[in-house]
Design goal:
Number of helices: 49
Number of strands: 11
Low-confidence stretches: 611-659
Radius of gyration: 45 Å
Strand order of the largest sheet: 1-7-8
Shape: elongated
Strand content: under 5%
Distance between the termini: 165 Å
Mean pLDDT: 85
Largest sheet: 3 strands, antiparallel
Length: 823
Amino acid sequence: MGKKVKKEADSPPKDVFDPLSIETKNAATAVLMLKSPEHDILAKACEAIHRFADKGDENKVALTELGALDSLTKLISHEDKLVRRNAVMALAVMSAHGEVKRLLKKMDIIASVIDRLAPEEEVVIHEFASLCLSFLSSEPTVKVQIFNDDGLEPLIALLSSPDPDVKKNSLETIYNLVQDFYSRAVISELKGIPPMLELLKTEFPVIQQLALKTLATITSDVENRVALRECQGLDRLIEILGSQELSDLHVDTLLVVSNCLEDEEVMALIQQTGALDKLLHFARTSSQMEIQRNAVRAILRAAHNNENKKMLHEHNVEQVLITLLGVDHNEVREVTCLAITVMCDNVASKAAFGQCDAIRPLVKLLQSDSGAVKEAAGLALSSLTTSKSNACAVFEEGVEPLIRLLADDRDAIIAHSAAILTNMSSQNALRGSIRAQGIMSALVEPLQSPNTLVQSKAALAVAAFACDSEARLEFHAAGGVEPLVKLLSSNHHEVRRHACWAVFVCASDRECSADLCRLGALEILQEINLSPCRKSQFSESALQKLFEGNLSIKYSMTGSLTLNDIIVDGFYDPGKEKSGNRVPSLEELSKMKVTSQQTVIMINGKLPEVEPPELAPAEEKLTDPRGRSPAVPSRNTADKNSSKNKGKGKKEDKAKEEVKITDDNGVETKPWLPPSDPAFCGLVSHVMELMLPLNNTRERVVLLARLVADAMGGPVERDVLHEFFWELHFSELKAELRSNVIPIGRIKKGVFCHRALLFKALADRLGINCTLNKGEFSRAWNVVMLIEETPKMSLVAYIVDLMHSPGRLMKAGSPEAIRYQTL
């Protein structure tokens, strides 16, 4: 046999690469390996990158700069489970860095990450995919993407995962998502409440707290509160509050309960189970600030429902809140004050707060260093002081601090202080004392605030306190009229309404009324009343009130005075003025250049202070039988009046002496006085003397009409009216007086408008009620109301003829009356 030769081993095929073990210490190499087609290399590279990224933020940034994200975002969907798992782990760890998150937002990866939450995936993939989403979901745009890609449903499913890390990461992502209302709205539909309640039973506190925070957020929606109640979630929450071992969860549990208590059904449920008493006891006795704050918030949320207010009152919630006012923590005090404010909507609770002495600590809180506490305390007191007894209690604590707060630097505090003072003003005894402490001058600055709430409350306070004449004078002297007029032009409805009310009240004072008109209040109110949107009963009443105090302006703008409008000295007729235009004052008109177009008729029944030494012949016949003018009081009468008002007279004289008027150069000048009208004074005396024997109103009207006609040129037939040259007479008077203003007593030739004005001025002095109405082409007429002796006694309106047949009475609306009124 021949020698055996050993058979050589088969050599590998030439086209097969021999296995190569690679070991690298360079991250760049690992990133390059992510592009390998081999699953084993990909898995190992992803694992190495995960470990490297987990060591620190610098490594995450380095990997990002090397381009690892592009490959990893593709590999999380790889067909190989190991590659997919390791890629998800690496991407999740890297996404914790802010720069990585910024880049990932621009990559369309959310759908791929959500796919990794599928039930068939490994628990590890669930853990890191949910971790990645928890990091990314803090970005608003990513939250929208997760929602649009239906990511909520698989996240809720993972709340039941056996792995606590998966639960935590999924819950954290859900918590971020439900900060937006559209995500909260679908939680109940996706059955998300039951698994969250189950998480409250876990042994991991971090998951319990996160579950409570999420529940606190989603129960702001009523559908989720209903779902929580149907799942008996309240029972679990009450159990937690009753367990001292779970005290670390009490703060967050109270947040959920506070949301739920807004519903009547929940409130009734916890009342029946005795949990409400536990909650109130919890709020009163807890020593933890956060627990107290959240307990009061729960009460506050519950109190927004009227039925809940009744339940809370039955459980003496007022005493609990008063106790919490004494807690030495500003947040607790602030929320407690807000709860008191809401509870004050219940009348019984408002009374209980007063009986339990809540006023004193609240007034004390007005001096707090915390602006938020001061605001809340002021708001609570503004609600409490709508009760008479509570307002008195605040008054007893002192008004001066409240008045000082009108100059505070926080708008809400100013507004609340003004509201409290306004509430107190409803009682006469308190109003006078408050006014004496300078309330009117203190309100001037708030009226000028740019804040509409402050403007509104300040204007309302002015209206409340200016019902006293002394208060109006003080307000006027403090310069409050001008800022009040400016508020009439406000675009804010409540500001404008309260300003109108204040103008209505202030216009009762003659000086205030004149100043309001001078500053343009009439024009503004007329403009407001022309607008259907801005017009209100307040603006209409304010306008009428200003007209009442300024009949000259009313007659000029409206061409009409009513039965109740009484002409007094100082009245003038400047002619018809368009609505919205300012009517000049009598002083301004008297200083204008004399023109043929402008004629102003003035009423002045006051004799000059220094009487002339001798009476003119024409004036002698106007004296009474005792040889003196009836317009001048007798010495005995004057002495009696002076003795009665001796002290008052001295004050008035002193006030007059102190009034000094200076011109632009500082030179003292005498105040302007309207020109005297002795002829009118004499006519008044003469008419009164003739009227004295007459008791019948009709006879008095007829006689007065004849006397007026005689004083102004006598009867004038309609056909020859054009020959009654009254215009020439007026031109002569203006030239003589060197003024456009003509005292009515100087007119010897007058037509309809002049005679009707004289008739009204005299009738008002005689107590004869009549109107004054102006028409076109110098027409004017008076309407008197006379009793007709018909089967039923009734008042009939008559127009008085002063021109053609003086004393003739024409029924209003009759053809002859219409002819008298028109050309």
